[in-house]
């Protein structure tokens, strides 16, 4: 019987220095010695892709798209070669492959290409010979044989797509946090790292602002039934396993989106504006219709584009954020949570309900407080947070 096959992906900070690459090599060896076959996907060393983009922009503010891909793909090549050297130095046989060598075919859309097919024969041959295969993330090759890249953050997509094509037992995304938390731990004091989460809940968390996993990565892994594990390359631990589609009962977490803008326009303009937004491919984070107004909430760039489309002058833009409770929302929730937020002197500007989630629109300055109040009331059980602590947040 074949040994289990694991695809491991190490992001920019995980391979950000020679010391980090040596430490990753040791982690890879540990997994190999535990009896696994390994494919390792690497990102460029942290800051490198930005540095290359800056160089290109010094030549042309909109660089030639084909040549930008040639340039950006070098970042991942540096990481993969250094990791292969580190493994070799430690006495382990590995091979590094570019997107082209690994036969990762993409469409023709330079800078934002989509993987169309992976011919896994090359990788399989190396795996059959017990060789660790290192693949450059974020890149592929189009039908013309030109290098393409998958869009920023694309190494996760490479890892998940490879895992699906190779029928891997698990795809492990190594990052700089211990796993998926019930809320952003930099904002919510009592956020907890989860052992396990289902794809339905994880998809909603990512869609509503959790940054630990990109939405396309979650969706692709879920569709292909590839168990995903998020774990830290800086500390030991088993991280968070994302598996299965059955939503976890109850409420699972809080997702945040900060630094957004809101504009309200007369409700009768909704249809026309929606059509234009769709035509221009502008991404809107939240839309709310009431009797008189139609409110749109999105990233500042997107709102500025919408404002430019409006014929009216002087549309007021207010800084807001979204706090979303993810999970099963049952009826008393709306009034109960509003009461809770009011008690903490946080005013809810709007709210909207979605499948498996409930979102509050809140003025920017109150976002962190709102996230803590909602998290401690709905996510943390009563025995882990004392009433005193809860009241401290409220007042
Ligand atoms: N190096 C690329 C980026 O910085 C791809 C990735 O890291 O996933 O966006
Ligand atoms: Mg990333």
Automatic annotation (TrEMBL):
A Pfam cross-reference name: AA_kinase
InterPro entries registered for this protein in UniProt: AceGlu_kinase-like_sf, AKii-LysC-BS, Asp/Glu/Uridylate_kinase, Asp_kinase, Aspartate_kinase_CS
Statement: the UniProt record of this protein carries the keyword Oxidoreductase: no
Enzyme class of the recorded protein, top EC level: transferase
Regions annotated as coiled coil: none
Domain Aspartate/glutamate/uridylate kinase: 5-232
Catalytic activity: L-aspartate + ATP = 4-phospho-L-aspartate + ADP
NCBIfam families: asp_kinases (TIGR00657)
Name of the featured protein: Aspartokinase
Lineage: Bacteria, Pseudomonadati, Pseudomonadota, Gammaproteobacteria, Vibrionales
